[in-house]
């Protein structure tokens, strides 16, 4: 059996719900965890494994936390636009050394330093006339939240793909084990009959030894298939985060109904749509950085050039005004940043076009594979029916000695090969159907 070990990836589809309550205006929406369903102790259905994997995935939980952090970032930005109060304290002394004539030989000019600076003030600042900057920042945060949620959907889709693929591998291993066990039971029943025929002189002892060897070989095959199934089931449980180790029987997966190829709403396509929005917002952020910044400032406290209590007592006051920051020249950095964004947009369009063609090609190829698999399965099933009928007829004739043991074993070998081909063809068809369903996910 083919062993598939893929990385786990995430939770946001059925496990998370969109929440916007309590947000600042213009802030991004966030995903909050939906009420968790109780996972089965030992899942057997594909849907149960997917549910457990979504609830156990640390990557999906981390993505949900990142979305929540994005909401907190929007709240932080709202607080930054409010009044900011800071306390400022200083106690600076500027010593000076004079000569005999009273001339300063070491130290700052007291006209500048006043010999010291002792201050304790509270300063309040509030950005004003910054509507463009504030809207741009909120839109950037909202875009980041959309990217995080879409990343969560991509991770959830990757998780579903890996769990489904491994479930099909494990189910095929179980089907092969079931067939090997039934064939061994049949051969053991036939073995008891052949011993009687050998004792009755209908078959020679050497002919029976060939059949006896085939029974022992089938016993080894059953053990190998059991180990293969245990290994694939263990890999499936490891991907889903299930601690159970019991050898259970998996339920047959239900093939998904055919859906059309998802267009721009597909998580993979939406990623590049969000990238386009992000680049436009980056351009707005560049424009906002070159706009004048005006803040209102108000402070109150004491400032003095002397540390004496009398001087400090007469140095209490307050002040206020406006602070203006206006960029004048920066070496044409603004144009260079625009060029960088233009190059990023060219790359985004190239990826987007390539992905669109690729997804269409994959969808059409999978449709062709499914049609071919349906035709192949029909032929294999017919051959299995014929082989089953031949084995049944040969079993009856073997009891009367009308069929040689070697001929019967050749029929059994052909029947075993056809049954293995049927299991593989069914698994490949299911894989193609689920892969087609992934491309239809929106």
Automatic annotation (TrEMBL):
PANTHER family, per the entry: OUTER MEMBRANE PROTEIN TOLC
Source organism of the structure: Hymenobacter montanus
Signal peptide: 1-19
GO cellular component: cell outer membrane; efflux pump complex
GO molecular function: efflux transmembrane transporter activity; porin activity
Keyword Transmembrane on entry: yes
Keywords carried by this UniProt record: Cell outer membrane, Membrane, Signal, Transmembrane, Transmembrane beta strand
Organism superkingdom: Bacteria
Primary residence: membrane
Gene3D superfamilies: Outer membrane efflux proteins (OEP)
Name the UniProt record assigns to this protein: TolC family protein
Record's subcellular location: Cell outer membrane
């Amino acid at each position: 059996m083919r062993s598939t070990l893929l990385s786990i990836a995430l939770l946001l589809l059925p496990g998370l719900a969109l929440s916007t309550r309590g947000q600042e205006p213009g802030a991004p929406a966030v995903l909050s965890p939906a009420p968790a369903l109780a996972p089965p102790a030992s899942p057997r259905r594909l849907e149960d494994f997917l549910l457990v994997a979504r609830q156990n995935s640390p990557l999906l939980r981390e993505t949900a936390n990142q979305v929540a952090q994005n909401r907190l970032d929007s709240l932080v930005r709202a607080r930054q636009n409010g009044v900011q109060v800071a306390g400022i304290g200083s106690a600076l002394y500027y010593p000076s050394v004079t000569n005999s004539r009273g001339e300063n030989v070491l130290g700052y000019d007291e006209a500048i330093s006043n010999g010291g600076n002792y201050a304790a003030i509270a300063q309040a600042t509030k950005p004003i006339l910054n509507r463009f900057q504030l809207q741009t920042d909120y839109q950037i945060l909202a875009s980041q939240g959309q990217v995080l949620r879409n990343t969560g959907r991509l991770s959830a889709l990757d998780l579903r793909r890996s769990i489904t693929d491994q479930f099909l591998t494990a189910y095929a291993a179980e089907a092969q084990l079931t067939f090997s066990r039934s064939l061994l039971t049949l051969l053991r029943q036939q073995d008891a009959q052949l011993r009687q025929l050998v004792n009755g002189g209908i078959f020679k002892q050497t002919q029976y030894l060939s059949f006896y060897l085939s029974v022992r070989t089938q016993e080894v095959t059953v053990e190998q298939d059991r180990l293969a199934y245990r290994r694939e089931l263990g890999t499936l449980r490891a991907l889903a985060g299930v601690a159970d180790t019991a050898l259970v029987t998996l339920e047959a997966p239900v093939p998904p109904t055919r859906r059309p190829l998802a267009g721009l709403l597909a998580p993979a396509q939406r990623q590049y749509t969000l990238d386009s929005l992000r680049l436009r917002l980056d351009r707005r952020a560049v424009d906002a950085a070159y706009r004048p910044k005006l803040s209102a400032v108000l402070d109150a406290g004491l400032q003095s050039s002397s540390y004496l209590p009398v001087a400090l007592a007469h140095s209490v006051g307050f002040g206020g005004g406006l602070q203006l920051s206006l960029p004048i020249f920066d070496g044409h950095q603004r144009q260079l940043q625009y060029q960088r964004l233009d190059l990023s947009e060219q790359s985004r369009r190239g990826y987007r076009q390539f992905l669109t063609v690729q997804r269409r090609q994959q969808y059409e190829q999978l449709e062709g594979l499914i049609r071919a698999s349906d035709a192949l399965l029909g032929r294999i099933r017919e051959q299995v029916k014929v082989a089953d009928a031949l084995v049944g007829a040969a079993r009856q004739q073997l009891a009367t000695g009308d069929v040689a043991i070697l001929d019967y074993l050749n029929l059994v070998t052909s029947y075993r090969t056809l049954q293995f081909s049927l299991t593989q063809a069914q698994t490949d068809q299911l894989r193609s159907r689920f892969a087609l369903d992934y491309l239809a996910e929106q």
